[in-house]
Class I SAM-dependent methyltransferase (Shivajiella indica), 206 residues
Amino acid sequence: MNQTDKKGHWENIYQTKEFHEVGWFQSRPDVSLEFIDILSVPKNAKIIDVGAGESYLVDHLLDRGFGNIYVLDISSSAIEKAKYRLGENAKKINWIVSDILEFKINIGFKLWHDRAAFHFLLKKEEIEKYVENAVKGIIPGGYLIIGTFSEKGPDKCSGLPVRRYSINELESTFLPYFKKIKALNIDHITPGGQVQNYSFCCFKRL
Ligand SMILES: C[S@@+](CC[C@H](N)C(=O)[O-])C[C@H]1O[C@@H](n2cnc3c(N)ncnc32)[C@H](O)[C@@H]1O
């Protein structure tokens, strides 16, 4: 899928669907919050949610008092919808419309979060570029929280093919720059009642 098709797919999704209708909808991003809460990240630390879409994670980060939050998505429609939902609080967020592979990273993040965006990268060179960006973008001692469909999960997400990862495969993808500190598999139930098994890992940047 070329860049225009990829962006067009996501713009169309966010322009035609309500958040509570999409398969990845969560009323509360429990696993992500559980991982973030054990890390004791300082409140002024730079945090990015990559491929955030309309996720409520940003609302919970604001509630926890984090003051240096970046939200990145390839879809400007997703970003506009998230901004609209947050109202005045949207001014507290750094919004970035970009393909993560095109994003020129000159910010040192303490925490990088990605739920169900990385798994759309299928080509070896795309995966390598993402890892390179994460290595550049996360400061030593910082954290990467990543969630993908697991080896038992579906082979498509939002109608697009995905690469599925076991926890071991995620770990080997981010070696030798990251050390695994916590991981789990979890079933996500879509609004339509489908069960999707995810692999979630939290890594420390070495
Ligand atoms: C399945 S949704 C997950 C959204 C959100 N992380 C969540 O858990 O609710 C995937 C998101 O990643 C975004 N996305 C897909 N490929 C991307 C890329 N290459 N760069 C940035 N964002 C991307 C999509 O626009 C979409 O919002």
